[in-house]
UniProtKB/TrEMBL annotation:
Keyword Phosphoprotein recorded: yes
Transmembrane stretches, start-end: 6-26, 177-196
Chief location category: membrane
Keywords (A to Z) from UniProt: ATP-binding, Cell membrane, Kinase, Membrane, Nucleotide-binding, Phosphoprotein, Transferase, Transmembrane, Transmembrane helix, Two-component regulatory system
Pfam families: HAMP (PF00672), HATPase_c (PF02518), HisKA (PF00512)
Protein name: histidine kinase
Length: 472
C-alpha cells in the first residue's frame, strides 16, 4: 500500500524531473536562439563591410560593377574583400565549383571547409542571401551565401565563412553552469518541500495508527503536538475525542455496573422475603405483613429504576431529534407546584414564584420532566417552615430557571458529581437512599438536548439549581 509520504515523494519526484527537463528544453531554445541571433548580427556586419571592400576594390581598379566577369573574382579580390572582417571567403560558380578563395589566416584554416557547399547554396539562385550555421566535427561555422550578379546575369555565389566555435563553447559552458545551478536549486527546493511535507504527513501517519488502536477498543496515549496549523488542530481534536471516548466508556462501564448493583439489591430482598413466605410452617402474621410491604416497596423501587432507565434510553435516541415547539413553562411550573400542594402544606413551606417570561422554544415532554424532577427534589429535601423560591427570567435571550431551597446540606465535593448517574448523597443530616440516583442525570441530559447548561450553587444549607436554556 502506498502511504501518503510515498505518494507525495513520487509526485514530487515526477514534478522535479518534469521541471528539470522542461527547464533544460527552455534553456536550450533560449541559448540556440541567442547564438543564432549573435551569428546573424555578426554576419550582417561582415556582409556590409565585405561589400564596401568590394566597392572599394572595384573603384581602385577602375572596374565597372555591371561589367564584372567570373574571372575577375580571383584570389586578390577575394583577399581584399575579407581582409578586414576576420572571416574566410570562397567564390563558387553557379554550379558549385570553387573559383577562388580569400583567407585571412591560412595557417589556422582547414581548407576542407571550402569543399562542402552551404546547405542553402542552391536557394541563392533565387537571388536570396542565405545564412547557414553548420557543425563540422565540433567546429561551428557560420556561412553567409550571397548571390553575385553582373548586368542581371548571375556570376556565382560569394560565401563568407566564420568560425564561431569559441562563442558556441562559451554559451554552452554558461548553459551547463546555469543547468547545474538551477538543478541544484530545484533539488534543494524539492528536498525542503519533501522534508516539510514529511513533517506534515508524520503526525497524520501517527494519527492513523492511533485511530486503528481506537477502532480496536483501546485508548492510546495523547499524541504530542507542537504544531498550530490545521494538522495540529486535527491532532488536538483527536486527543480530545479519545479523552471523551475514554471517559464515556468508563462512565458507561460504571453506569452498567451500578445498574447491576441497583437491580440486584431489591431483587435479593424480594427473593429473600418470598422464600421465607413460601415456607410451609411460616405463620408470623406481623412479619408476613412487613415482608409484603417490603416486597411492594422494593418492586416500586425497581419500577422507578426501570422507568428512569427507559427515560435515559429514550433520551439517548431523541437527543438529536427533539421536536421543538413553543412551550408555556409558566403553566407547567404552576401545575407541578399545585400537584405537590398537600406536601407543601404538610411541611409548611412558603413557595415564592417570579415569572418574567412565560414561554420558550423546547420539547414540552422533556421540559416538564426536567422541572418536575427539580421541583420534586427541592420540596422533598427542604426543611419544614422554610421558603422555596422558583424564578424564571430572561438574560441575553437566555431563559434562566432557578429553584432555591433551604434544607439538608449537600457537601461541596458533590457539587459537580451530583449530575452523574447513581450518585447519591449519604452524609450526616442528608440521606437520599430512597432516590435512584438518576433524576439529576436525566435533568442534565434534557438540558444538553436543549443546548443549555445546568449548575448548582451551594451556600451552607441553601441550594440553588440553575438551568439556562436558549429562549428561541
Amino acid at each position: 500500500m502506498l502511504t501518503i509520504r510515498k505518494k507525495y515523494g513520487i509526485l514530487l519526484g515526477f514534478i522535479f524531473v518534469l521541471s528539470v527537463i522542461s527547464l533544460n528544453l527552455i534553456m536550450d531554445k533560449f541559448f540556440d536562439k541567442s547564438f543564432k541571433d549573435l551569428v546573424a548580427q555578426d554576419m550582417k556586419e561582415i556582409y556590409n563591410i565585405s561589400f564596401k571592400n568590394l566597392d572599394d576594390y572595384l573603384a581602385l581598379n577602375s572596374i565597372e560593377k555591371d561589367s564584372l566577369k567570373e574571372e575577375d573574382f580571383d584570389s586578390k579580390i577575394m583577399k581584399f574583400i575579407v581582409e578586414r572582417v576576420n572571416a574566410q571567403g570562397v567564390f563558387y560558380d553557379i554550379e558549385g565549383e570553387v573559383i577562388s578563395t580569400g583567407l585571412t589566416n591560412s595557417s589556422v584554416v582547414d581548407l576542407n571547409i571550402f569543399k562542402d557547399l552551404p546547405l542553402s547554396f542552391y536557394e541563392t539562385k533565387n537571388n536570396k542571401t542565405m545564412l547557414d550555421i553548420e557543425n563540422k566535427n565540433g567546429t561551428i561555422l557560420g556561412k553567409l551565401s550571397i548571390p553575385i550578379y553582373s548586368s542581371n546575369n548571375p556570376l556565382g555565389v560569394l560565401v563568407l565563412i566564420k568560425d564561431y566555435t569559441s562563442d558556441y563553447l562559451r554559451d554552452l559552458n554558461i548553459k551547463k553552469l546555469l543547468n547545474i545551478i538551477v538543478t541544484s536549486l530545484f533539488s534543494l527546493i524539492f528536498l525542503a518541500i519533501y522534508i516539510f511535507s514529511s513533517g506534515i504527513t508524520k503526525p497524520i501517519i501517527v494519527l492513523k495508527n492511533k485511530l486503528l488502536e481506537v477502532s480496536k477498543g483501546s485508548y492510546p496515549e495523547k499524541i504530542n503536538n507542537t504544531s498550530k496549523d490545521e494538522v495540529g488542530i486535527l491532532v488536538n481534536s483527536f486527543n480530545e475525542m479519545t479523552e471523551k471516548l475514554k471517559a464515556k466508556d468508563q462512565q458507561e462501564k460504571n453506569f452498567y455496573r451500578n445498574i447491576t448493583h441497583e437491580l440486584k439489591t431489591p431483587l435479593t430482598n424480594i427473593s429473600g422475603y418470598a422464600q421465607i413466605l413460601n415456607e410451609d410452617d411460616f405463620n408470623d402474621v406481623d412479619f408476613k405483613r412487613n415482608a409484603l410491604n417490603r416486597i411492594i416497596s422494593e418492586s416500586n423501587r425497581m419500577h422507578d429504576l426501570v422507568m428512569s432507565l427507559l427515560n435515559i434510553s429514550k433520551q439517548s435516541s431523541d437527543l438529536e431529534e427533539y421536536s421543538f415547539e413553543m412551550v408555556k413553562i409558566k403553566n407547567i411550573v404552576q401545575e407541578l407546584i399545585e400537584i405537590r400542594n398537600p406536601i407543601i402544606q404538610n411541611k409548611s413551606l412558603n413557595i415564592i414564584t417570579k415569572f418574567e417570561i412565560e414561554e420558550i422554544t423546547g420539547n414540552k415532554q422533556y421540559l416538564k420532566m426536567l422541572f418536575n424532577n427539580l421541583i420534586d427534589n427541592g420540596i422533598k429535601y427542604s426543611y419544614e417552615n422554610t421558603t422555596v423560591e422558583i424564578q424564571i427570567k430572561e438574560v441575553d435571550r437566555i431563559c434562566e430557571f432557578s429553584i432555591t431551597t433551604t434544607g439538608k446540606t449537600i457537601p461541596i465535593e458533590f457539587k459537580e458529581k451530583i449530575f452523574e448517574p447513581f450518585v447519591r448523597v449519604e452524609e450526616k443530616g442528608f440521606s437520599s437512599k430512597e432516590s435512584s440516583g438518576l433524576g439529576l442525570y436525566i435533568c442534565k441530559n434534557i438540558v444538553i438536548g436543549h443546548k443549555g447548561e445546568i449548575t448548582l450553587d451551594l451556600n451552607k444549607d441553601k441550594s440553588k439549581f440553575i438551568v439556562k436554556l436558549p429562549k428561541d
